[in-house]
Amino acid sequence: MAEKTAVEMKETILKKFAEVFGEEGAKAYFAPGRVNMIGEHTDYNGGHVFPCALTIGTYGVARKREDRKLRFYSMNFDHLGVIESSLDDLKPAKEAGWTNYPKGVMWAFEERGYKIPCGMDLLLNGNIPNGSGLSSSASVEVLTGFILRDFFGFDVSNQDLALIGQYSENNFNGVNCGIMDQFAIAMGKEGHAIFLDTADLSFEYAPIKLENAKIVIACSNKKRGLGDSKYNERRSECETALAELQAVVGINGLGDLSEEQFETYKSAIKDETRVRRAKHAVYENQRTIKAVEALKNNDVELFGKLMNASHTSLQYDYEVTGVELDTLVEEAWKVEGVIGSRMTGAGFGGCTVSIVKTDAIDSFIEKVGKAYKEKIGYAADFYVVEIGDGPVVL
Which position among 74, 230, 290, 336 has the lowest Cβ density within 10 Å, counted as fewest Cβ atoms? Predict the structure, then answer.
């Protein structure tokens, strides 16, 4: 499907903003979505991740108000109309729906001592598939923080925007997410993925040079809710395993262990399921380190093999894939010209990411799409994506 250009999106949202809220004094913004190339469920285990920002994301138009009122409108949920709130009422509410994300960021700014002097009108339009696991919520969070900084001159860096977004998601929206999504979005750089050590937030940009190949995202269209999925359960299984290992070896996170060390000490973990969960965290971290090394050596084939191994580990050791994602990946592996394919995001629905040779993309979409629909009963959507920058004023 042809994406609108940023210029066309800007025109569309400004026009809609004028219809909904009136013409004067509005500014347009963009924050990307992200995809993680490898390093899944490592970010809360003190390991490495390797995400990149995308050229699809969340577009926003905002304008300051004279009062403390907040008025929200999303073109993705236009049936909901304008949702009103106030800076004096920054607390999560089920009926507030998607507006809990921007409100959470406003709350988190105030928690840090950045007082927001006046309300705003905010219109959003995302071209990230909803519920896809490409981080539409983190995109909204970073976008909101970016707008607040631009409006009120708050002294916060892009890295702070990521931390504030994560804080709001953890403490306002009750999703125990790691830092990766917000970090990848706030710190995105065109043509590069971010090799991030989540233990200390040290990072480097690694160029993604895919000669004659592209990144293709397949969206399973199986909806999932992060907060009520098995995400928090996996997290606590890893925390328990870590505590058991810490009784025998001095580590701060599962990401501190090499594969050999894990094999040496794993008998300290008292439950077979937790052994597999911890094994995934340790081995996936090492795969991510090797994958970045492979890219530096221009070895895209090895990068693809590590992606495949990542999926297998997520399927059997971490058990977060499900029949939809497994079908997309297993069908991808059968197609000539696929360098690597894996689930990406939290799992249980959402998306897969594949590196596909350019001349094989059409047959990839056709074959995988056909097999998926036959097996699952509804269609998947495919997006050929580019790696883009972080948040911007349009």
Answer: 336
Cα–Cα distance between 314 and 311 in angstroms, integer? 5
Tell me the sheet residues that pair with 342.
Answer: 353
pTM of the model: 0.89
* Under 8 Å between Cβ of 18 and 123: no
In this structure, the chain runs to a length of 394
**From the candidates 43, 67, 160, 181, which is the catalytic residue?**
181
User: Does residue 363 surpass a pLDDT of 90?
Assistant: yes
Confidence class for position 350, pLDDT limits 50, 70, 90: confident
Q: Per DSSP, what are the bridge partners of residue 217?
A: 353, 383
Task: Kindly tell me if the per-residue pLDDT of 203 is higher than 60.
Answer: yes
CA distances from 337 to 62, 304, 364 (A): 44, 11, 8
Amino acid at 327: T
Residue 181 known to be catalytic: yes
Rounded Cα distance, 338 and 213, in Å? 9
**CA-based Rg of the chain, rounded to a whole angstrom?**
21
What is the rounded CA–CA span in Å between residue 16 and residue 62?
12
Beta carbons within 8 Å of 277's beta carbon, 6+ residues apart: 234, 237, 238, 241, 317, 318
Taking alpha carbons only, the member of 7, 8, 56 closest to residue 215 is: 56
List CB contacts of 211: < 8 A, sequence separation 6 or more.
300
CA 255 to chain centre: 20
Start-to-end CA span in the chain (Å): 23
CA 292 to the chain's CA centroid = 19
Q: Using CA atoms, how far apart are residues 306 and 183, in angstroms rounded to an integer? A: 23
pLDDT of residue 1: 40
For residue 190, what is the DSSP state?
Answer: T
- Collapse the DSSP code of 315 into the 3-class scheme (helix H, G, I; strand E, B; otherwise coil) and give the result: helix
Token duo for residue 329: 């990946």
- The residue with tokens 């106030």 is 86
**Per-residue pLDDT tens digits for 22-75:** 988 899 999 999 999 999 999 899 999 999 999 999 999 999 999 999 999 999
Q: H/E element holding 121?
A: strand 120-126
Instruction: Please state, in angstroms and rounded to a whole number, the distance separating the CA atoms of residues 380 and 13.
Output: 27
Helix ranges, the chain (H): 6-21, 100-111, 136-152, 158-171, 180-186, 231-246, 259-265, 272-296, 300-316, 323-334, 361-376
